[in-house]
Each structure stands twice: as structure tokens, then as C-alpha cells.
Give the backbone structure.
Amino acid sequence: LADITAGEKPDIKKCEYLNKAKIAEGGKKLRKNWASTWVVLDGKKLLFYKESKQQALTNLKTGCKPESVDLYGAQIEWTTEKSSRKNVFQITTGSGSEFLLQSEKHASIFSWHDAIKKAIDSLGTD
Ligand code: I3P
């Protein structure tokens, strides 16, 4: 939402409820805590909203702050080791934070993996 307050148009590619667990921050491991989260992909970053979809949409207009994850220099990979759940991928940010995202819906999580990978690749690493 920094983009909105800066007067730029948001470039929303995708939004949906996914299960999210943050497992590390700044290289430090965190206790895993899965939570249903409204996730927005805007091309350069992922936004995580704790509240309901309606509140999240309202906040898109009013500029309330979600947790924002910069995709520049991030990595994405499927994992079967970091969780007993199926359909899980991990995002590792340039700053050393790690997130797991999961959905019971195969098509949905594959589509998210694809979209986030494209966003990361389009940003490059240099
Ligand atoms: C964790 C919780 C998570 C589970 C995790 C447990 O216990 O059950 O759902 O992850 O497994 O440690 P607690 O709530 O007591 O912290 P998955 O559902 O992803 O398997 P883990 O320790 O193997 O990561």
C-alpha cells in the first residue's frame, strides 16, 4: 500500500485466501503458526491481510497497512519437508524471511506458484 500513498496505481495480479505460516524472519526461525490470510499479489510484492476480505478491500482504498513482502531477490520453491500439509510452497525473501503458503485446492496453489514465480523472475536480482 506504500504505492497507493505514494500516488502510484496498485498493480493487483491476484488475490485469494490462502493458508500462511511465517517460519523465519531476518534469518531467525519462528514458531510455525498457520493462519487463513487474504493474500494480494501486486507484481512487486505480496501483501498479507489478517482481517476479512471486505476489510482488506476497504483498506486498499483507505491505506491501512498489511504485512508487505518485497519479491525483489526472493526465491520460491515447492516443499514437502517443511510441513505435513500438501500443496505447500516456500517463499524466502532477500532479507531472510520465510513464508509457507498452502491451499487445499491444487489448481489454486499451482496458479499462485506460477504467478509469484513470474513476478520474481520479472524483477530480476540485480
Ligand atoms: C505445530 C502445528 C503445525 C505443524 C507444526 C507443529 O504445532 O501443529 O500445524 O505444522 O509441525 O509443530 P504447535 O501448534 O504446537 O506449534 P504443519 O501443519 O505444517 O505440519 P512442524 O513442527 O513439523 O513444523
About this structure: The first helix runs from residue 2 to 5.
